[in-house]
Amino acid sequence: MPNWKTLPFIALACLTSLTSTSLAETQFLALSDVHYGVRALSGKWGHGHETSLTLWQNAQTKAKDLITRERPAFTIYLGDMPAHGELEPTRKQEFTTVLGGLANIAGASQRLYFLPGNNDTYAGDYCQFTDQSDQTPFASASSGTWPALNAQDTLIDQSAVSIGYYSAYPLGPTDTSLRLITLNTVMFNARYGRGFHWNPCQPYMTDTDIQKAAEAQITWLDNQLSDAKANSERVLIAMHVPPGLDGFGGSPMWDPDLKITGPAGQTLSVENRFTTLMAEFSAQITGVLTAHTHLDDMRRMWTCSGDVAGLAIGIPGITTDHGNNPAMKLFTMNAAHDMTEATTFYASEVTGHNWADANRYDFTETYCPTKGACGGKSLGQIIASWPSSQNAALAARMEAVLKTKRGTVSGRYYAKAMDARPQCDTGQ
Predict the structure, then answer these.
(1) Percentage, residues of the chain above pLDDT 70
(2) DSSP letter for each residue of 229-247
(3) What pLDDT score does 410 carry?
(4) Among the ranges given (1-10, 65-74, 306-315, 322-331), the one the predictor scored with the smallest mean pLDDT
(5) What is the DSSP string of 50-62?
(6) Cβ distance 20 to 319 under 8 Å?
(7) CA atoms of 58 and 66, how far apart (whole Å)
(8) Window from 191-205, 259-273, 291-305, 411-425 with minimum mean pLDDT
(9) What is the DSSP letter of 9?
(10) 196 backbone dihedrals φ, ψ, rounded to 5°
(11) How far apart are CA 9 and CA 21, in angstroms?
(12) What is the mean pLDDT of residues 48-55?
């Protein structure tokens, strides 16, 4: 088994060649999965319940309070705005409410970036981000502010923004030490372009169309990472659907049968190609942010060669739909842009559905195998301290801290999902 502590993306020797204009720590705020429902009732929490207007407004208040007190450099929202299973007219109302809330959080000066989740189309769940009129719900419902609020001057490449991915300099237009790469990994899921049998996508995408879209995005990602490396930049990657298994249901998050062309002309699964890129550019990548599971998710990403490609950290949902308490995360990066802390703030029924100041926990304290011995380590190094044989204990800790005794979440796959291993193709 490879040694995490010698991996390039956490080796200090590899960081000396990377320049940074930051002289001190930097923070950023991350939220995801509001799933606002126009008919959702206040005080109704737990599995199957969407986010009410009251819960969303209270979450905005908490986010604005954190921005005022902690002064994060930017905020990112990782997708899924409307409730599940709504028809188009209702979904439009829900998009408007959530996007209005994000604008409220951003105010006049906070840089805020957002990206699509699997529910973020007018047509339905897992459908194409761009509709038949070449419109995205973000663009039409947010007065053209997609993909960023107060940050249009920081965008690097938005050539594929209508498909749902782009890059930016989140620390400001003059600070190019950190590149944000947002992806639309919904298209890597087996349901993408098809939807569910009770709600098929219109238009229904062909296998060829999906394969071309996936290959174009991976090629774009490769080019972005290569450009960041050439310019000695660190990279933060954000997506909605993570690689690996669905800890909630047990099936693959990304379609193992979705094949693309590799750099040597070989045919690879899209997840195989992605994790290979993560390993290749690990010295540049400070972290991978994911969402979709609604929990305090984390995954070691592996290549087909048996190398650990990095750590993916999940952003909890504002919705309580998977049995979680609603939450958001404040990340801290050091001067070299290594992620050194992630503090989770949550609302709880114990505190009357409020975001009380005491409702918080730190990543280093919660997930350090030996209490108090993880100071100064990166988040990747902390999770590296847990061998795969201890995944059950790590998953149990994750469930306990965010659920805070609210009951059992269905599905028993969280421990297995802690290791994200791609579908490896024969002959490699």
Answers:
(1) 90
(2) HHTT-EEEEE-SSPSSB-T
(3) 52
(4) 1-10
(5) PBPHHHHHHHHHH
(6) no
(7) 13
(8) 411-425
(9) G
(10) -105, 160
(11) 19
(12) 92
Residues in the chain: 428
Kindly state the tokens that stand for 388: 């795969």
Smallest Cα–Cα separation from 240: which of 186, 278, 166?
186
Buried b (16+ CB within 10 A) or exposed e, 15-27: beebebebeeebb
Token pair listed for 403: 């659920």
pLDDT higher than threshold 60 for residue 47: yes
3-state secondary structure of 119: coil
Q: What is the pLDDT of residues 225-258, one digit of tens each?
A: 999 999 999 999 999 999 999 987 889 999 999 9
Which uninterrupted H or E stretch holds 361? strand 360-362
Structure tokens at 324: 């979680």
Cα torsion angle, 167, 171, 172, 177, sign: negative
On whether the CB atoms of residues 76 and 180 are closer than 8 A, the answer is: yes
The answer, yes or no, to whether residue 407 has pLDDT greater than 80, is no
| pLDDT score of 155 more than 60 | yes
Q: Are 217 and 239 in contact (CB under 8 A)?
A: no
Residue position matching structure tokens 């973020």 = 120
Say what the pLDDT of residue 281 is. Answer: 97
Q: Which domains does the chain have, with CATH numbers?
A: 4-15+25-420 (3.60.21.10)
Q: CA dist 18 to 73, 154, 269, Å? A: 20, 20, 31
Average pLDDT over every residue of 90-115: 95
Nearest partner of 333 among 36, 74, 38, judged by Cα? 74
Label each residue of 315-336 as H, E or C.
CCCCCCCCCCCCEEEEEEECCC
Question: Does residue 206 register a pLDDT over 90?
Answer: yes
105 within 8 A of 67, measured Cβ to Cβ: yes
CA distance 418 to 73: 29
H or E element at residue 68: helix 53-70
Match 């209508």 to its residue by tokens. Answer: 162
